[in-house]
Structures are given as structure tokens and as C-alpha cells.
Amino acid sequence: MSRTKKIIKWSVITIVILVISLTAFGYWFMGLIVADKPMYEGITKTRSSDLTYLINDSVEYRGKILAVVTSTAEMGTSGKSTGYELTELSRAYYVFMANGFEVEVASPLGGQPPVVIDDDDVGSYDYAFMNDSAAQYKVNNTLALADITASDYAGVYFVGGKGAMFDFPDNASIQNLVRELYENDKVVGAVCHGPAALVNVSLSDGKALLANKTVSSFTNEEELFLIPDAPEIFPFMLQTKLIESGASFQEGSLYLENVVTDGNLITGQNPWSTWAVAESMIEVLGYTPKPRTITAEEISVAILNMYARLGYEQARQLLAKNLNEGTPIHRELLAVHSIISAMQWKLGTTIDLIRLLAYAKSKK
């Protein structure tokens, strides 16, 4: 057999073995993710009345919080659709309600804003929100920001969504609203791209709101991982702009919960920070947040954060503790982060996260 034929023969054999190995690994990997019993069976039918967290245990009426969403449906001229992130509104909405606050929803243009619904991230609270006729009326008929009276509210919460990068920063109504609430010791909260509302706010003395403040938001790394051409699409990179506006930026781990409280200003890094931002706002308003059953997604995020801070063994111990207590784990989230690590060529992290997945599977 000629040398060329031998090379071809062994190349084909190598490719076949590689394909078989990858296919076998794929089946094994998927087996780590798929739960024995569907965790979310019937979840799409969830209603707010099904959420025991929302049962009012004599929580008195405490006022109103304004949630602000974007009116922008396209990322500049890129042709890419956008809007506000459903999960960043729905979860905070119910936290505010459960803690005695009425929630009103506003947008720069008023009316029905565009919404982004990521099916992979939607949970029971989000489906409850979509099945909640009162909540849906509010989001389909948002108040125009120009018609808002700041003194009516105990605080404002800026919902993320990439559209916020376009219609939040230069909106005079937003700037006036934030200034008045902040200077009257009301609470100002924002998550993910929501902090874009803060970058051009000046206080009555002419100083920038963000001067010497510590904040967080969707990071440059998170943005560029998802949208490599983000600098060409967006008017600015949010992390960079916040720093340019005088803020000290606190960056957490990629796509994991990170919340910063600086006085009456609360900011969160990404969608996984929504619960904590809303509950931190309740605390700043002077109340103890109502106890809530932590979701499987939050527990998985906590395990991932533990791994990022302290390594595999500490993360495994936290995972074991939750499994022993019968707490559901969002294994898909662990899998996604293992894939993200692989895409970044962080192979040690990828292996560790797969080990955590395998451990979780072995305890089922």
C-alpha cells in the first residue's frame, strides 16, 4: 500500500473514531442534563394564584414602585430585534408585590413595548406573569415617562434589555425622574442593561449621579461574548460608559449573580441578578424582604459562584448539601456554563463543571 493510501486510511479511521467518541460523549452529556422527572411539567399553565409567595400575609400597602422598560425594538440599524427582558420584569414585579408595593410600568413612548422572551430561561414566575391579566394589561399599556410624577413613587426599577442602550441614556424624563427620587432618598434600582438609564444623570448641584458611586451592569466581557460586533452596534459599551461617568465598576463572574448597593442606588450585573436587586431595593426601603423559596436556577447560580470564588470542592459541598435537602438543581445551567468555559478554552473549568453535573446525576 502506498504511503498516500496509508495516510488516507488512517485519517479516515481517526475521523470515524473521533465522530463516534464525540457522539458517545454527547449522549452521555445530555444524560447528565435531562432530569429523571421533568422539573417543569405543566409550568406554562402557572398562574399567580399558584405562587404561595404571593399570598398576602397581612403585608400592609407600602406605596408604589415604577418599573421602566425600553420602547426600542431594534438594536440600532443592525436588523437585530430587541426589547425588554421578560424575566427581568416579571420576577422583580412579584417581589415588589409580595412585599406590599403596587407596581406600575412605564416606557419612553408608552403603550405596548417590545419584549424578549427566552424560552430556556423562563420559569414559573415568568409564566405566571404571562398568564396574569392585570400584569399583562400594564405591560401592554405602559405609561409614557413624560407623564410620570416622581413623587408618586417610593422607587424606580429600570428593567434590562438591549433596547435600553438606545432610549434610556438621553431621555430627559428618565434623568428628571432619577434625580428627584435619588435626592429625596427614594430607591433607584437597575439590572443588566437597565443602568444605561444612569449614565447621563446629573444632580441638582451639577455633579454626575455616578461620581464616586460603585455600580455594576452587564459587563463588556458578557456583551462581547454574545455579540462580538457590539461596539459597532451600540452607542457605547455599558461598563465603559459607567466608568467614564465617574463610577467605580464592580465586575462579578461571567453570567452569574452580582449586585451592588451604594446608598439608595442598587445595580445588578445581569438577568441572574434580578431577584437580588429587587429584594435589595426592599431592604433599602426599610423592610425585611418576605421569605421566598429559592428557585433551582438561583441555587445553581450560587453553586457556580461558589466554584468561581473557592473552587471545585467547595462547590461540590454546596451541591451535595442542596441535593441532600431535596432541593431541585437547574442542571441545564451548570451544563451551559461548562460549554461557555469550553468556548473560552478554560478546559479545567469545563472538566470541573462536568464533574459537578455527573455528581448531581449520580445522586438522583
Summarize the structure.
With 364 residues, the protein is α/β, with parallel strands linked by helices. It has helices at residues 3-33, 86-98, 124-130, 133-140, 164-167, 172-183, 220-226, 230-233, 238-244, 274-284, 296-310, 312-324, 331-343, 347-362, and strands spanning 63-68, 84-85, 101-107, 115-116, 143-144, 155-158, 187-191, 214-215, 248-249, 259-262, 265-268. A seven-stranded mixed β-sheet has the order 5-3-1-6-7-11-10.
- Considering DSSP H and I runs of 4 or more, what fraction of the residues is helical? 40-55%
The quaternary state of the protein chains shown equals single chain
CATH-defined fold name of the largest domain: Rossmann fold
Task: Name the structural class.
Answer: alpha/beta
| Element string (H = helix, E = strand) | HEEHEEHHEEHHEEHHHEEEHHHHH
Number of domains: 2
CATH class of the largest domain: Alpha Beta
CATH architecture annotation of the largest domain: 3-Layer(aba) Sandwich
Radius of gyration, in Å, reads 23 Å
The biggest sheet, with number of strands, parallel, antiparallel or mixed sense and barrel status, is:
7 strands, mixed
Percentage beta strand: 5-15%
Widest beta sheet: strand line-up: 5-3-1-6-7-11-10
The global form is globular
Runs in which pLDDT lies below 50 for 5 or more consecutive residues are: 8-29
- Let me know the number of strands: 11
Number of helical segments? 14
Distance between the termini: 53 Å
Task: Give a description of the structure.
This protein has helices at residues 3-33, 86-98, 124-130, 133-140, 164-167, 172-183, 220-226, 230-233, 238-244, 274-284, 296-310, 312-324, 331-343, 347-362, and strands at residues 63-68, 84-85, 101-107, 115-116, 143-144, 155-158, 187-191, 214-215, 248-249, 259-262, 265-268. It is of the alpha/beta class. It has two domains: 43-284, Class I glutamine amidotransferase (GATase) domain (Rossmann fold), CATH 3.40.50; 294-364, no CATH class. Residues 8-29 have low confidence and may be disordered. It is globular. The termini are far apart. A seven-stranded mixed sheet has the order 5-3-1-6-7-11-10. Strands 2-4 form a two-stranded parallel sheet. α1 packs across α14 (347-362) and α13 runs antiparallel to α14. The chain has 14 helices and eleven strands. The longest helix has 31 residues, at 3-33.
